[in-house]
Specification:
- The chain is an alpha+beta fold.
- Helix content is 20%, strand content 38%.
- It has one domain: RNA-binding S4 domain (Structural Genomics Hypothetical 15.5 Kd Protein In mrcA-pckA Intergenic Region, Chain A).
Length: 71
């Protein structure tokens, strides 16, 4: 599981995908989530505005598993 460090209280799923190098730009998030399976804490979710907090685990099909951590 790869750690993704944030400096704020939370990060949106769209921002997270960019930070974790799953997508190149935030504009790709909507289409990426339509085509790729994403689970957050074991539950499927495709809302790019979904807030992720410290301790959340995210699995992106084809990219691996990530853990949100606070700096």
């Amino acid at each position: 599981m790869k750690p993704i460090t944030i400096k704020t209280e939370y990060i949106t799923l769209g921002q997270f995908l960019k930070l974790s190098d799953c997508i190149d730009s935030g504009g790709q998030a909507k289409f990426f989530l339509q085509e790729t399976s994403v689970t957050i804490n074991g539950e499927p979710d495709n809302r790019r505005g979904r807030k992720l907090y410290t301790g959340d685990s995210v699995t992106v099909d084809g990219f691996g598993s990530f853990q949100v951590q606070r700096a």
